[in-house]
Amino acid sequence: MKNLFYLILLMAFLLSACGGNAAPAQTQAPATQSPPTQTQLPATQPPDKAAPPTPEIVNSPDCTNSAAFVTDVTIPDNTNLKQGEKFSKVWRVKNTGACTWTPEYKLVFYDGDQMGAPSSVPLSVTRPGDTLDISVDMTAPIKDSISRADFELHTPLGAAMPIDKNTLLWVIITVGNAGSAGGGSNGTGSGSGSANGSASGAGLVTSTCAFVIDQPRVNQTVASINAYRAQNNLPAYTVDPDLVTAAQSHSADIACNNLFVHTGSNGSTPASRVAATGYVASALTENIYGSYPPLTAQDAVTWWATDQVDPRHNENLLSTKYTQIGVGYAFFNNFGYYVVDFATP
């Protein structure tokens, strides 16, 4: 009995020692650190390579300036436009001198009907031997007319640059019904063409300006034409006085009125002028040329012979269709104007 008592007492002691379940100890998770945030640096471009400096253009003080006309890119002479029509005239020229053109070189309005063109246009850099297209924005007059504007190329010192054997670039337009018969000029201060037109219409013009007839130059023109024909095994043209009268009348007319077209200031044509002299032509055509300064007779004939814009000039010089010619020449206001009428009775 006593042993049972001790056994119960021992069990009670053990139960008291275990009294209540103690809360399980919290296991601390090991402290962790967030990975360091990487600071995004702005993207950097490698430094641009510095563009090589544009070399300064320095022309020799004694370099020569000259140009050559290449072509009319737009608005060939005698282009017909509407009254008030806007247009851009573009010449292509070649630097034939030894100086490099810079923006200090300018296209400068010289004379005639300015037609809204600026007084000057700077040139782009153009080295010797290179070509340049020069553009001028203009507006046709608001009346029927034949209008012409002359321009020069000026050096930085303001001197006019030689262009071929002249100093001018120009544009000639016809407005409305003021049309012209036949070809056009080469756009360098040298008007020329080949045309005939109708025998009906206005006759000869009596010009009153103080033009000068240079008879030796007329004779030299005839001689130069026939020498050129002889080189090509062709017979010489004979001179007809009626054709001379018609040619001289037109040369004086275009000299006094600053024209470079076959249509006279009175609306006459080559054929109507020749008919007015009494000459009855079965075939007829005409070459004209005007320039400042005037070309020699030989140079004018050479220009016609080598003109690639209008090959009719050379064809007329070497034609077997025509047998007679008449040459007129007039000098006025520093310009020289040649007219040659070719015909067969």
Q: Note poorly predicted spans.
A: 179-193
Question: CATH topology of the largest domain, which one?
Answer: Pathogenesis-related Protein p14a
User: For this structure, what is the CATH class of the largest domain?
Assistant: Alpha Beta
Question: What coarse outline follows from CA principal-axis ratios?
Answer: elongated
User: Which strand order does the major sheet show?
Assistant: 2-8-7-4-5
> How many structural units, i.e. domains?
2
Strand elements, count: 13
The major pleated sheet works out as: 5 strands, mixed
Structural class, by secondary structure, is alpha+beta
Rg for CA atoms = 45 Å
Helix % is 10-25%
CATH architecture assignment name of the largest domain: 3-Layer(aba) Sandwich
User: How many helical elements?
Assistant: 6
C-alpha end-to-end distance: 178 Å
CATH superfamily grouping of the largest domain? CAP
What is the beta-strand fraction? 25-35%
User: Helix-strand pattern, N to C?
Assistant: HEEEEEEEEEHEHHEHHEE
Average pLDDT figure: 82
